[in-house]
Amino acid sequence: MRERLGRECVYVPSCRFGLYVALRHWCPPGGRVLMSPVNDDVILFVVLAAGLRPVQAPLNPWDGSLDIDAVPEETWGTLSAVLTTNLYGNPDPAPRLRARCDASGIPLFEDAAHAIGGEVGGRPVGAWGDASVFSLSKHVGARTGGILALADPGLRDTLAASCEELLAPRRTTAELAYAVRPYAEAAVRALQLRRAARATLRLLGLADREGIRMPLRPRELARAVAAAPDLTAYDPWVRVDLHDYRLRSGRFRLSRVSRRLDRLDEVLAACRAGTELLQATRWAGPRPPGGTRPLFRVPLLVADREAAAAALSRRGVDVGYLYDPPLDDYARAEFTDPSPAPEAARWFARHALPVDPLRARTAIRALEEADVRPAEWPTGPHRSAGPHPLAAPRSSAGPDRSAGPDRSAGPDRSAGPDRSAGPDRSADPRRSAGPDRSADPDRSAGPHPLAAPRSSADPDRSAGPDRSADPDRPADPRPSVDPHRSAAAWREGRGPAGG
């Protein structure tokens, strides 16, 4: 990672742990941190645990990125830091945020848990902030570990010492559980026992979640707020989906992380190819400029997310990493400052269907067969009354959608998968090294894969070997659109910026 980022790096047991260490180093208690409301609730509690006040930012509706132009001018003078999310791998406007933070004299932190291998502004995601954190559980698939990367190499020893002070002692039982868990989960998937396993965990009180968001428990949370900064006081919230988030790593964990990192480029190539397939469908938002990124999940925008998720589930593609409702609706004003323009975040959170690009072909077939409709773009006094204002034709041969999303002639199949060659049989590169296939719920929007429906832990791989994308698919004929330049146009009801 040092070579990839050109920065000094500290290994940490989880992305959330690294973020807490960074926040404590740079931000005095009582500070305010601008962040995305469409985000894992764990990150909200990490900010609170550091003794800071979350401030929810406006978002762009097509990819969930921060809308810097919609942040009120008076807000900037009250902030102690800005935290990006890079949701699903779609980068936030880091160059502009860097310039704004420099002008305000505050640090920029990048949460790059979903964005390893991504780029923005000619640099890797994670190379703009004073500090950035990465998960080694998402693309890497190690189910443990993270990286804290630092702009100032002289701070490495200081931050490493801070980590040491907060780490929990290594436990032999935890190492054994880490070693055998992938095999147990593989057996559960193979025997189709997931429902029974989830029910058992609930009966034992081991299920962290019943739905997308964890229980807020406001009375207990208010007591924790009074004790902050204190990571231990927030442990009931920060440990959700990853009970070993601050555990000192043993040799077995470190060995698996090393093996997985050696294969990262192979995984990124497969993710990039799958992203290309999914971004060419009628459910995708506007394609950003700069080429296809290796997204961790591709957020398709559908009219009925629950129905679409059910269609995917029938084909063995589970949907996780959902962040609905937005954090300001979830935590309310007692625990966070609400966004000044929440509608776009609510719309995106309600309609985004995060699809694993390594399951692109299976997902596209399932959505086509279920005739899943794309989401209708928002209308209202500050928005376009027609379709998505950035919309461009999905295909030069496809129907004209300039007047709105009329689908009376049936669903558009022009972007569907090519079935002439039969099903895609290429293997997920994360499988060949053994049965450890689930993504660490380090930043999960759902529970442990055995604990609740629509797990974030990668059970997508249970439906067979269709896990790769077609790298020879023709390029999407849609013109590139810069979503960060187009945010004001969307808010004001105008068309796409630049055309």
From TrEMBL:
Classification via InterPro entries: DegT/StrS_aminotransferase, PyrdxlP-dep_Trfase, PyrdxlP-dep_Trfase_major
Pfam short name (any one): DegT_DnrJ_EryC1
Coiled coil: none
GO BP terms: polysaccharide biosynthetic process
Transferase keyword on record: yes
Domain of life according to the entry: Bacteria
Co-factor(s): pyridoxal 5'-phosphate
Family designation: Belongs to the DegT/DnrJ/EryC1 family. L-glutamine:2-deoxy-scyllo-inosose/scyllo-inosose aminotransferase subfamily.
Biased composition (Basic and acidic residues): 421-445, 457-485
Alphabetical keyword list: Aminotransferase, Pyridoxal phosphate, Transferase
Name of the protein this chain belongs to: DegT/DnrJ/EryC1/StrS aminotransferase family protein
GO molecular function, one term: pyridoxal phosphate binding
Region (Disordered): 372-499
Keyword check for Transferase: yes
